[in-house]
């Protein structure tokens, strides 16, 4: 698919279905009329640059031009919403769990999973997400109204104007090489989950039993003092994951440098958790006793299977993820989507 076809598609996808075909033919004819007989790629770039951003041109074709967030700031507005709404939901989750957790610590109790707790988390997440959406939208609506530049140039991430080279980049980057925003958000959510789970493992991770008030922990799985003795390196790993997420957000595609950063992080994290897993007093004695009773084996055997089984899985999946990252980074930029 060449740049002209991509440009026409980008314009028509913002238009009503009944107008798409006619406008596509008209626009394609207009572009070819702007080109010399022996045109080259540079001539195509100049023609598309003269026509301007596809969303602005689509807005000119449209009969209705009233909007709250216009094409100038639409993409930036949408990108920030996709980024901030998941963060708002995560923040609400941490807030609810954090308040409950601090109350339980003060009372010397463990965290109980109940329907009321889940309802509070869900309601708070929805509230914060709606608040974030309204707040960001109002800010961009104000920006749209007070922007004194009558240039119709939309602003992409970084407040840079549109350029035909953006289409070329979108055409040339293989789908598997690109990094979707959902992957970045999922990574951040996982960072929050395992971070909270690590530092409050004795409150969340263990064996539960079903009671009248919901699930209640019988015994924690880990000795929290052992886990907390590694807190500096664990905080560094959490920071590295956040830095990697920001790196992905800026680049939005895999590169050799990004894959190398990921490889270093993965090797250090796997090595760290293997060291933690092999600590003699990591697992709570009562936890091992209960598990060994279920399978009628010695607690030491249960511990051995858990330590080396988990370590093996971490090494295998870590190696696969490193291989996949370099595979994506080394994909040919000219491969078709």
Question: How would you characterize the overall build of this protein?
Answer:
This protein is mainly alpha-helical and 337 residues long. The chain has a domain of 60 residues. It has 14 helices and 2 strands. The chain has a two-stranded antiparallel sheet. α1 packs across α4 and α5 packs parallel to α8. The longest helix has 37 residues. The protein starts with a helix and ends in an 8-residue tail after the last helix.
Q: Strand percentage, roughly?
A: under 5%
Put simply, the count of helices is 14
Structural class: mainly alpha
Strand order of the largest sheet: 1-2
Shape: elongated
Share of helix, binned: over 70%
What is the CA-based Rg, rounded? 27 Å
Counted beta strands: 2
Distance between the termini: 10 Å
Mean pLDDT: 78
* Contiguous runs where pLDDT drops below 50 for at least 5 residues: 333-337
Helix and strand element order: HHHHHHHHHEEHHHHH
Main pleated sheet:
2 strands, antiparallel
Question: Can I get a quick summary?
Answer:
The protein has helices at residues 3-12, 17-34, 41-51, 54-61, 71-107, 115-146, 165-172, 181-199, 201-204, 224-228, 231-251, 256-277, 285-295, 299-329; strands at residues 206-211, 214-220. It has 14 helices and two strands, in the order H-H-H-H-H-H-H-H-H-E-E-H-H-H-H-H. The model is unreliable at 333-337 (pLDDT under 50).
